[in-house]
Write a structure and sequence with these properties.
- With about 475 residues, the protein is an alpha+beta fold.
- The protein has a domain of about 260 residues: Beta-lactamase, CATH 3.40.710.10.
- It is built from 17 helices and 20 strands.
- The strands form seven sheets. A five-stranded mixed sheet has the order 2-1-7-15-16, with no helix packed on it. It has a five-stranded antiparallel sheet with strand order 9-8-20-19-18. A two-stranded antiparallel sheet has the order 3-4.
- InterPro entries: Beta-lactam/transpept, Beta-lactam/transpept-like, PBPA_dimer, PCN-bd_Tpept.
- It comes from Streptomyces mesophilus.
- GO terms for molecular function: penicillin binding; peptidoglycan L,D-transpeptidase activity.
- Pfam families: PBP_dimer_2 (PF21922), Transpeptidase (PF00905).
Amino acid sequence: MNKTIRRISVFTLLLVLSLLVRATWVQFYDGQALADNKHNRRGTIDKYAYPLGGIIVGGEDITGSERTKGSDLAYKRTYKDGSLYAAVTGYSSQVYGATQLEGIYQDVLDGTDTRLKNPLDTVTNKRADPGDVVTTIDPAVQKAAYKALGDNKGAAVAIDPKTGKILGMVSTPSYDPSKIAGSTDGDAWEKLTKDEDKPLVNRAIRQPLPPGSTFKLVVAAAALEDGLYPSVDVKTDSPDPYTLPGTTHPLPNENPSAPCSNATIRTALQYSCNNVFGKMAADLGQDKVKAMAEKFGFNNEKQDVPVRASESLYPTGMDKAQTALSGIGQFDVTATPLQMAMVSAAIANGGTLVDPHMVSQVTDSDGSVLQNFDDAGSSRILSESVAEQLQSAMGTVADQVGANAKIPGATVGGKTGTAQHGENNKGTPYAWFTSYAKGGDGKEVAVAVIIEDSSTARDQISGTGLAAPVAKAMMQAALKS
């Protein structure tokens, strides 16, 4: 063989070897990345090649799968009472992906989670039967919240204070995930995404807004724990009117005739005295109020239930006047309904906050538990004596709210709130109510409700009139379940 042919042969051999090396690299190293690439349709085809597993509420599967026609995606997701449970399930769409529980547990629900494989499946690389996600949601509480919210724009959350189980989570206006599950549902998707009321946003955990006077519970807790005031029945040093520090602007009360001058914490919560809690926050200072807020869960960027909740914020870098405004749940303070339900839950539970969660178990197709969330973490954030005093004061508020909150045979405590909205409060005010209820049989529930917008006349908007009846309906359902 002459030198030229030999060189060509060696060069050709090197090309072949390079091709083999590249093919091996793509197969064993880049293969998984290519398979997982969102633009690889093969992954979507595989995901919807079989029926998906179930999301379970009250022992029943509220999801399903149906055979498609004329598509390479064999099955699409279906939902029973989709609008009722959308804030819990999220959606699983052949085109737009998956959110909430559908997104977090998609590997379990489509059978690709490695924990679902038995030894034979591992050897044969057979796709495992899909698993299920068992929620903590109580159908009665969920239905009560959805019905009571009605056509209002708002949200509601109910928590079992002892266990942290989320019993209800509703956001309105809602949507039916079935309408956007298929590959030809573009019109429905466009309508939802262009809707000014943003039905795809889960207001219960993803839209923090000013909590208004419900935040006064946090300030009261800080004052009692700090010893600024020894009890809820000791008069505070709170002039009415109270002028914001460093300014000439008085902090007005909603009811000018309310007995707010030097009022006790109990009376100040009952009449929602801004002068008392504005001055209280300024006297404590932003650091002490912030520390208490963070014990309740504010400023937590990683609040997972297991869906990631948006951060509820207590700001820093405020002057004394701004700190005073923060004490009444205004300035830059924001909270989700989940966060305010956590405040009531910790108070109701004697000062211990149990981590909220809406999934109790993840199981395989045979019901064997892959992951259990029944033993949630907890932390003591208030002394028992402070928690008991706040329960008592919240009971006084509930007595004043009357029929809109009270439940025969149950101990109920609550706090109303109306928060300003928009520049110079030009927007419709937000109506809040957070509360707890304890039944004679040991059952407990904590609730928070926000009404962002309703058909009610502006001068009639209040936590008492709009949000409290929703909370009452949820608490009644929880205590009966």
